[in-house]
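Deviation from plan, reported transparently: alpha-D-glucopyranose complex.
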Amino acid sequence: MIRRYVFGNPIETEAVLRKPKAEQWEGDEQVLAFEANQTGFTCKLEQEDIVYGLGENVRGINKRGWIYVSHCSDNPNHQEDTRSLYGAHNFLIVSGKRNLGIFVDTPEQVIFDVGYTRPELLSVSMDSGNYELYLIEEASAEAVVQEFRRLIGQSYLPPKWAFGYGQSRWSYRTSEEVRQVARRFRENHLPLDMIYLDIDYMERYKDFTIDRERFPDFELLVEELKEQKIHLVPIIDGGVKVEAGYDVYEEGVKNGYFCKDEDGENFTLGVWPGKCHYPDMLNDEARLWFGRKYRFLLDKGIDGFWNDMNEPAIFYSEKHLKKVFEQLEEYRGQNLDICSFFEFCGLVQGISNNEEDYRSFYHNYRGERIRHDRVHNLFGYYMTRSASEAFEELEPGRRILLFSRASYIGMHRYGGIWMGDNKSWWSHLKMNLQMLPSLNMCGFLYTGADLGGFGSDATRDLVLRWTALGIFMPLLRNHSADGTRRQEPYAFGKGTEDFRGLIGLRYRLLPYLYSEFMKAALKNGMYARPLGFVWPEDPVARHTEDQLLIGESIMIAPVCEQNAIGRSVYLPEEMKLLRFRGTELTEERVLMRGLHFIETALDEVTIYLWKDHALPLAAGGETVEAVDWRKLALLRFGEAAAYELYDDDGMDSGVKLEGHLFPVQS
Ligand code: GLC
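Because the crystal trials were delayed, the predicted structure below was used instead.
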């Protein structure tokens, strides 16, 4: 059952497509132990309650015990105590004796205190108290998700080729370097479907330009790679460089499409190219204009994009920077003591993503001038919407790969997300696993983390273990930051056989993974579920934080620790262990319910098949296109186990389940 309440005068986010009629809030203390008013609400948590959801955030699948702030933030240095990441996903589920879904729909900052201040209390608050509240009560957490997802509409469908392996780096700086990456993959028979272009393909970091010195033959490069079935996927940044004569800048200025400061001037801030303006993605006309700019690259044969810096990130604002320079002057010649030294440092450290800056510019949203902080969490969402709506106009009915860094619920209809800048840390490998189901609950199905870690130096064993998890992520992309150690599969100088095997297994699993992804998208279901969704009565399963159910047939339990020879795996019921050394199945063994220590070498993956379920396996391939979807082996646990496969042409954006489900014969 869904109930909707409106408090104050909320700003429309267009997150919910089908709004039920709003009810009058009359208090719900009896049934839900829930109290709400215009500044927020509280909900009593029982000892046994798990709190699921909140999408992209630090910590576990169970969000209890921390405080999270929904505020899209560019924070590449996030750790366990970070409160905001790149996305703002205000949906959670209190799951225990009752299953209560809560969605707080407002584009402003929201604070979710999930038993941090008082362990028995979920307390949600925001500044203005203008919000829509949705309460969804169902018999199970999974049913809550399904109801919620019905409200917010179908998740984005990427093209089938986007389920292949993608190689990225900030940056492959020239056509030649890109060709070399392709060559190294093909020479080593490492499967590959995408190479990503980071900011250096552009001319001085200007959106919708190409640096012709580094990429003189861009169009030819796209074509050559296409012949090898490799898609080139360029980045698009939110900020437009201020530069006389640059068409995007000139048009934006002429038509008033940029965000304005208090005085009605174009708001100037610094990002990669130096001084920039942000297009007013919330303004319908500006959004349409910006989206149509993607045509520049579509016309060159590009069919995938990643949208970045759209929290929006602000390295500095012109005005604030000026002030800081003046203030710094005051410290010259001073004896910097304990206080003044830290004040001095704080001045510089506080320049980026400064809250004052977010309060100093304006949008024209639905005909109204609105200060940015009131709609902050919509920016990345509307940037991605801008591209997606333009694709629908320019290439109707065709799936284009699109994912974003910042997001809000509602954006899940227009694109996927990657999980932002992470680090080459074992803790971030585990967090990648934990974020996946939380994001699925919020509608984000096409997602994955920078495999191997973006910042800091990776080690070979970390990248291997991360690949062994990554092959189950819908978005599978190895990406790393400028200045860090190279982490392509061939970069560690030790042969590539183990990487070939792990990535190769992804291609053997593709028909299953794609089928399960599409079923989840078309049925508003979960692609990756926490164990507690299926075995809510089993306390161990409910509290298992490092295993996931992927689709209807399998469970995974990746190794997330350095130097581990394996790990303990909890089986809530009897399952069949499938051990793969690379692409080869080397062991099938039925294991009893309970805890098992399962040794897993760096080049191995273990999968746990449910009783009376089956897993289809293809022969594999080096590209998605090379995988033969018709020749599938069926691994069964139980004689009668069967599998119904979803398949389609991988390109049509309007597909339905009907007509695309096939029994697998084997
Ligand atoms: C941001 C992105 C990262 C990219 C870098 C340079 O940090 O999150 O993925 O490599 O910018 O464009």
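The chain has 16 helices and 40 strands. We consider this an acceptable substitute for the interim report.
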